[in-house]
Amino acid sequence: MKIVEVLTEYGTLALDRTFSYLYDGKKRIGERYRVRISFGPQRVVGFVLRLIETAKSQEELEKEKGFSFKTLKEEDILDEEPLLDDSLLSLAKEVASYYFSPLICVLQTMLPPSLSPRNSTLKAPKIAYEKWVRLLDRSEEGLTDKQIELLRLVALRGPILKKEAGSASILGKLIEKRKVEIYLEEKHRLKLKEEEREQAHILSELQEAAYRYLLESEKAVNLLEGVTGSGKTEVYLHLAERYLEQGKGVLLLVPEINLTPALMDYCLRRFGKKVAILHSGLSGAER
What we know:
Layout: E1 2-7, E2 18-23, E3 34-39, E4 42-53, H1 58-65, E5 70-72, H2 86-98, H3 103-110, E6 129-135, H4 145-157, E7 160-161, H5 168-176, E8 180-186, H6 205-216, H7 232-245, H8 260-271
Parallel strand pairs: 2-5
Antiparallel strand pairs: 1-2, 1-4, 3-4, 6-7, 6-8
Helix pairs in contact: 2-3, 4-5, 6-7
């Protein structure tokens, strides 16, 4: 038997505490999971903060505590793994304490909308897939001119999106003849062709001096000043490249959303699929 301490989805200071439920199922449950709970007359979504193992029965616990427990069923567990790690949960608690905010409000802000502990968003985002066409047999024997044209396109460009293959009937004939096949691939929001990748620019003397200073500085915070176009971004990207090579992560904060596209393009060209973008203009699925 487990006592499950749960925050409700209601972001009010009056409810900024956990409520206890009992769970005795076989399905895995853990801290930082979302669960569907009965709260008063309603069914809402909660966030598990703590689990307490107990050998006592529900009757014994209710007699000891002096109140009745509501129970959780296996189907009430909405996640298969924690939504946050310990460090992010600790950060959420610090932010909630600093800004006198209900903890659940901070958690709802930290998580993508479709994973947020809210009753209106119980479903996890679905992975989007695209249909691609790839080559199986390059032989052109027995094909019509149009079929040969499409076969050569796939052979020349490598896998292509199905929607770029043109006529469905021509594509269907090639599939029947085992010349090509269709497969599914996860749809990536950020696209970059390999030939568009670019290498790091050579730093100027002043940029190199700033780069070395920041790299060797023992200070926790440093300010790099310079007018627009002076090359600060290239210094940042050189530093980012250095830390990525060490297996670390880098967070670049942009002061205005209007500046995001330019920096995003710059980072994608430099770092490719290592880049993730997060801003208020993204949909829940994109986040």
